[in-house]
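Re-running the complex after MR caught last week's input typo. The corrected sequence lines follow. Everything else is unchanged.
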Amino acid sequence: MTINNFEFSKHIYLYGTCIVDVGFSEAGIDAIKVFESYGIQVHYPMAQSCCGQPAFTSGNPDEARKVARTQLDLFPEDWPIVVLSGSCTGMLRHHYCDLFRKDDPDFERAKRVSEQAVEFTEYLACLPTLESQNKEPVSVVVHTACSAQRETHTQTSTQEILKHWPHVEQKSADHGGECCGFGGSFSVRFPNISGKMVDDKCQSLEATKADQLISSDCACMMNINGRLAKRKSDLKGQHIASFIRSQCLPETSHE
Amino acid sequence: MASRQNILDRLKAGQFQSDMSSDPSAKNKAVEPKSLAYLSEHFERALAAANAEYRFCTTGDQSETIVKWLEELKLHRCWVSEGTALGQALRQQNTQNIQWVNPVDPMGVDRSEVFNQIDIGLTQSHSAIAETGTLVVIPDANEPRTMSLVPPAHLVVVNKSDLFWQFEDWVLQHPEAHKNTNVVFITGPSKTADIQQTLAFGAHGPKRLLVLIVE
Amino acid sequence: MNDTQPIRMIDQPHKIGFRPAMDYLIDKRAIQFPDSQEFKTLTQKVKWIKHQSLMKLPELLEQAESQLQANGIQVHWAETTLEAQQIIHGIIKDQDADLLVKGKSMVSEEIHLNQYLQDKNIDALETDMGEFIVQLAGEAPSHIIMPAIHKSKQDIAELFQQKLGVDYTEDVDELIHIGRTELRGAFEKARVGLSGVNFIAADTGTLCLIENEGNGRLSTTAPDVHVAITGIEKVITHLSDIPTLIRSLTRSATGQPITTYVNWISSPRKPGEKDGPKAVHLVLLDNGRSELYQKEQQQLSLACIRCGACMNHCPVYTRIGGLAYQTTYPGPIGKVLSPHLKSLPATPDHPKISALCGACNTVCPAGIPLTDLLLDHRNSATDTSVIESMVWKFWSVLNRSPRIYNGLMSWVLRLYPILPKFMGGWTKHRKAPDLSSKTLHDRVRHYQAQQDRSSK
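Corrected-run output:
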């Protein structure tokens, strides 16, 4: 099965993203384990840091470009670049061509990276159906980052994966598609408005009474988890790779 | 005039760049012409959705139907042209409670009468648009603009045979329409939801729109 | 109004917020567009019409002027707000009038017409119900389609009681009837009426106005003189483009297939006609639009058909309301346009008060890439602090050097648990994040080492 022209490849690159690197690093190992269960060899370029998005969206394209340029060195082979973030995938796929125009010496390399970049669930949905070892009923609510909704459509690929697991009940949150209020520099410049947005989001997620909160986007998760903790909520979000591993490879959940 | 030249000069120094290279309408599939029954059914549904009230009549009983309707609604002073066949026919009717008026200078010396003493304006329509339940009214010397606007109710007569399917069709089939001083497309009575998103009628235009469909 | 002081937006959600009102508008629009592919197709058609017109804007304006004049409509060009104010004042003075009845016109708000006329002892009376309400309250409209959306019916009941001396009532039908009665007298006696224009058809010289209430028709029919004012970007190529534009505009704005009235005005009263204005004027306003036209990318915002869908779907607008923007146009389009109608240094917060969520882009019926334009404004910002510049330079150095990055991050994670967790605005509303104990880089290194050992 192919969606978005991605096919099964014996080798993939894993692009963890800076937020996963420091905030949800276990999800990176979880993703590796899931792909290895397919017999895929996962290559993690050690020199990776950040795709440049934080500088790009706050109006500092020159600094963003400097960092993005170094990321172009990381992927010499034509393998899929599996990214653990919908918004970072959007950055690589749609905005690297804004940073590296036709007259830039790295235009071709950037174009290649933009074509190879694929979000985690987007790629997983291209692979043969993942079977769940766990059959205990569990309810989840999925949060999708705004840019993921509009640029990489991870909500669609997430459905593609979860629909094969009848034991997983999906809850839908009121105004579920609305922004969680992170927006990078927005949450720093306008903390009270951002705070209201994340509080509303937490209220609607809690109201679903879901067991688990999962997402392809850890920047949102960091934002939402921070507010959930302040609200002393039982709910705590994790990257979807961790949830998938817990369902598919439960006996390997200890590193 | 300096401003005009300055504005145009600045515009001519610029260039609007679009990422569109072809007209998306060129891909339009040819729409099959709709039957009168189809148009008529849609028209009625759309009128109701727009809160217009409608009744039917034949060419033969037009005047009677109108008189009956007005009497039911207790509308007594009715503004209708003297120069149209309909206006003349109505004046032939035996009506006790209805006074047919036709102020000669509606926005001049007769302004106060028009604003304060008329219950309903009665006009013909040029045609109608079925998809949205819209009446096309083209005011003229006989039926001035304020007739369908100032009185608190408006009764408009439309021939079923003058139904068009969509606004797009209507415009393409009436390339000279703009030569009229005013063309107004009316869909339902005046309304507003400006107060707490609650729908209310009769904001400034007629509170009731009565549509008489002539079979 | 002091135009040299920058407008600062306040970081404070509105105490009640506008969720119910925005949901009402969102739901009504959604009913009209159940099929997102159909909406995209319609958007492409609208965008094509607007772009084709904008590509030949100067020629189109000249053609429109020529056609309008041939029809007997007088055309005036105003580069600035002041010029527009003076032109309109001149027309009213020529009639010896001291009352102007106004149909809804956001452009007339943009030029602060009411205050200018007030200072010259001319009453500019708003007749659109929402505008009438905010005028009575001494406020600006907070939404481009529903000006009084920030007011509850209790607010309005109190306002009418206070300012009009009527009995207190929260019944909406009664309140509307009070408004109608109050304004009727003005329509009866006014000799000059003002309106906006939704579209000017260049090929026929026709003004197209859409509305639900009828005050627009009244303002442009009952008085002896009708003055219309609109922005230069409102001219379109063909009269036959109008149905497509309206099809999208009314559905996007209020979820209506069409407004109660679509009004085509092509000339003043002709001989033999019994009513209609004896003179019709059109004022074409520039106020920064021709300069905007010269800016690649930003010029795309001239395609706006003023539907308001962007602000209805905006999570920021929903929480702060329109008045918080302090500009004529609020919401996403307001944040994009206001730096052009004023200047970017005058509106430094507007491009920044957005999470760039893109909900606006999705619903814009003219396909304007609003978040791209906000980002472009951010790239042009001139108020970046020294500290902020240094932060990004540091971030850039760090992320360009794998060794420094890896090393520093490993240490940060080791130290983090013992560091105090006050992070300014972030921790005001959230508990500080639980960072991982090890970076992913370190975990992978460890994992790969394990795998190498076990394969030996």
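None of the earlier attempt is carried over here. The first strand of chain C starts at residue 73 and ends at 78. The CA atoms of residues 304 and 366 of chain C lie 6 Å apart.
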